[in-house]
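User: Here's a structure from my thesis project, written as structure tokens. My advisor, Dr. K., wants to see whether a designed sequence matches the one we expressed. Can you design one independently, without my sequence as a hint?
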């Protein structure tokens, strides 16, 4: 009779911007998302999609499930040592108490760095491996904006990574990881992991070419059974890690030689596309001028994405630079989502809807985020515990407010978060179809939700707090040569 595997699952995730003046502690995890064993909600978060997927299998009687802790903090600065030790030990003690396990499935981010640990995921996985021994299958899902270390690679059996950016495929990624891990347990496959260091750091949105076709090609290779799984780590440029940069991960069925060959072929192909991967960007001034010009020819609004002041990359999300440019050009019919300013939100909630108040908001966190704006504003709408949807997951925005002045409407929120979807605007009472320009804080996760509502997307590269140029970023842990810091890191002297 077929043996039913006993599976433990857990999820700890955040993305650490080591250059950010913010810090991450246990409260940041508890405020954003923290579910004790068996308390995970029905809907997934990005990295915890393994929970609902595993529950479905448990319901069908395919597995026995021991649920562990699941937590997620909005990307921020270094995790403090006490917090990392606490979270790690929580998972390790759950593993120890779980009894005999056949499989461990972890939903991790892959870019967590704490004061006392440069490779949190590698540290966690290695500790679990040490507790359970070599026979237990360990399957892990990662976000592509991560640093793949050797420690992670050698201590896992299965690694799957979101292929899409925006990460719309987090449920499929979880399902792939679970499916392959169970097949490995059933001895239907003998997974072997091959990796290739692409030695490159840039941004790789899959909503545009050439990345769109590259990812479709990977999916076809999987469909044709060239490999069991193919993933790309994009890298996360704001994390000072020795493993920084893009990597290819191939899982073959006991054919490491083929996996090594395929990973190097795909890796070098990706490297050859390096100069075309990132979207074309405009300066703050040019972004506003371009939007002003374009709107005259189009009926739908122009969207300006403030790609670096993205709380999803670990910064505050309170830059006022683009808004001030728009004010200086006397532009109207503009909507902004969102400025992180818990104090200003509190004042709006205290004043109530329809109140006219003098408000100082935004630009408070860093001198490079522009100065605060002082205006007499109308508090148009206030919402307690607002949220937005990203695919099947709910993203908490905290108490929020919509303020209005001089033809500009701005959403203020109290939980740092990027703009994922148009429902940020609708839930705060803004009809975007009436607007000329939308300014949002996000690098590319907004794309799928917004693309049909706007006539043009402008990616705005506003220099500020985010370390957006690997050539200029002061990495102290990165010792490998990667592009664009060096021109050809793959060049070898004979
Ligand atoms: Zn990501």
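Assistant: Designed independently from the structure alone:
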């Amino acid at each position: 009779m077929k043996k039913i595997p006993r599976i433990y699952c857990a999820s700890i995730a955040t993305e650490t911007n080591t250059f950010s003046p913010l810090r991450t502690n246990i409260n940041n995890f508890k405020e954003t998302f923290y579910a004790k064993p068996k308390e995970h909600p029905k809907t997934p978060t990005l990295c915890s999609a393994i929970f609902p997927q595993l529950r479905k299998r448990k319901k069908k009687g395919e597995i026995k499930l021991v649920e562990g802790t699941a937590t997620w903090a909005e990307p921020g600065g270094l995790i403090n040592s006490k917090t990392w030790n606490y979270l790690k030990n929580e998972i390790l003690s759950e593993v120890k108490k779980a009894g005999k396990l056949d499989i461990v499935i972890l939903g991790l981010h892959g870019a967590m760095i704490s004061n006392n640990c440069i490779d949190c995921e590698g540290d966690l996985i290695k500790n679990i491996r040490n507790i359970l021994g070599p026979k237990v299958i360990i399957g892990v899902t990662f976000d592509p904006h991560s640093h793949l270390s050797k420690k992670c690679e050698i201590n896992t059996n299965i690694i799957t990574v979101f292929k899409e950016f925006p990460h719309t495929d987090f449920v499929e990624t979880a399902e792939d990881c679970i499916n392959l891990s169970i097949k490995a347990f059933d001895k239907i496959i003998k997974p072997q992991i091959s990796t290739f260091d692409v030695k490159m750091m840039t941004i790789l949105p899959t909503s545009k070419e050439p990345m769109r076709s590259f990812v479709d090609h990977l999916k076809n290779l999987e469909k044709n059974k060239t490999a069991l799984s193919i993933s790309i780590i994009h890298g996360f440029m704001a994390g000072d890690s020795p493993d920084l940069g893009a990597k290819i991960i191939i899982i073959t069925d006991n054919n490491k030689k083929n996996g090594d060959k395929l990973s190097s072929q795909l890796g070098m192909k990706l490297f050859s596309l390096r100069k075309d991967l990132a979207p074309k960007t405009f300066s703050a001034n040019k972004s506003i001028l371009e939007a002003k010009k374009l709107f005259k020819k189009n009926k739908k609004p122009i969207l300006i994405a403030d790609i670096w002041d993205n709380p999803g990359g670990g910064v505050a999300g309170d830059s006022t630079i683009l808004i001030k440019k728009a004010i200086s050009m006397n532009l109207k019919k503009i909507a902004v989502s969102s400025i992180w300013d818990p104090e200003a939100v509190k004042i709006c909630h205290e004043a109530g809807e329809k109140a006219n108040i003098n408000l100082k908001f935004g630009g408070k966190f860093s001198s490079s985020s522009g100065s605060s704006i002082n205006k007499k504003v109308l508090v148009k709408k206030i919402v307690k515990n607002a949220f937005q949807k990203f695919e099947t997951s709910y993203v908490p925005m905290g108490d929020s407010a919509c303020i209005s002045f001089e033809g500009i409407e701005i959403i203020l929120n109290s939980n740092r978060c990027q703009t994922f979807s148009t429902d940020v605007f609708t839930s705060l009472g803004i009809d975007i179809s009436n607007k000329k320009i939308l300014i949002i804080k996000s690098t590319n996760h907004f794309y799928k939700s917004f693309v049909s509502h706007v006539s043009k997307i402008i990616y705005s590269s506003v220099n500020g707090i985010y370390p957006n140029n690997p050539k200029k970023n002061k990495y102290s842990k990165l010792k490998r040569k990667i592009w664009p810091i060096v021109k050809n890191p793959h060049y070898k002297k004979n």
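When you compare it with your expressed construct, this may help: The radius of gyration is 23 Å.
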